[in-house]
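Exercise 7. Given the encoded structure of a 162-residue chain, write a plausible sequence.
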């Protein structure tokens, strides 16, 4: 039985939302793996702060991955669970061997910039489809990530001046 019948959502209207969520899931999976690498490989000044922060970030990302996959299921599709599938469609690239904190933070900021743009697209598609739950999910992600961008940018500042 189709869950969309109970949700009062039209399959044709949410098809683009589902497609965008599949792409977002792939991007988040690569982001998650990159964050783990940063967590494991970080060295030097700021190690303790960044090692802990990267762990927080990948734990948060793991929760978002699960939420996105479950939303895809709720909307009547099946999320991929193969990393090879993610690599074929993800717009975020794998990163390895980054040991410098400032370089890792720059990669994370760049990734957030991409994710925020994609989440805004999903939000727009979901709004057009009358899918308030996906709109709310994306809105929550945007709120968290915009704040994290601000914090990471402040952390990366070279000066403490005005």
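Solution.
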């Amino acid at each position: 039985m189709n869950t969309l019948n109970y949700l009062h959502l039209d399959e044709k209207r949410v098809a683009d939302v589902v497609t965008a969520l599949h792409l977002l899931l792939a991007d988040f999976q690569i982001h998650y793996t990159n964050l783990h690498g940063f967590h494991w490989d970080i060295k030097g000044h700021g190690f303790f702060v960044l090692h802990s922060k990267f762990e927080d970030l990948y734990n948060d990302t793991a929760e978002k991955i699960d939420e996105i996959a479950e939303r895809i299921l709720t909307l009547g599709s099946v999320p991929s669970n193969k990393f090879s599938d993610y690599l074929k469609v993800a717009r975020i690239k794998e990163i390895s061997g980054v040991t410098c904190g400032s370089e890792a933070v720059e990669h994370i900021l760049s990734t957030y910039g991409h994710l925020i743009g994609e989440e805004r697209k999903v939000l727009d598609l979901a709004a057009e489809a009358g899918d308030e739950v996906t709109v709310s999910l994306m809105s929550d992600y945007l709120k968290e990530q915009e704040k994290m961008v601000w914090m990471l940018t402040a952390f990366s500042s070279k000066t403490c001046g005005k």
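Remark. Residues 30 and 94 are 6 Å apart (CA to CA). Students should compare their own answers with the one above.
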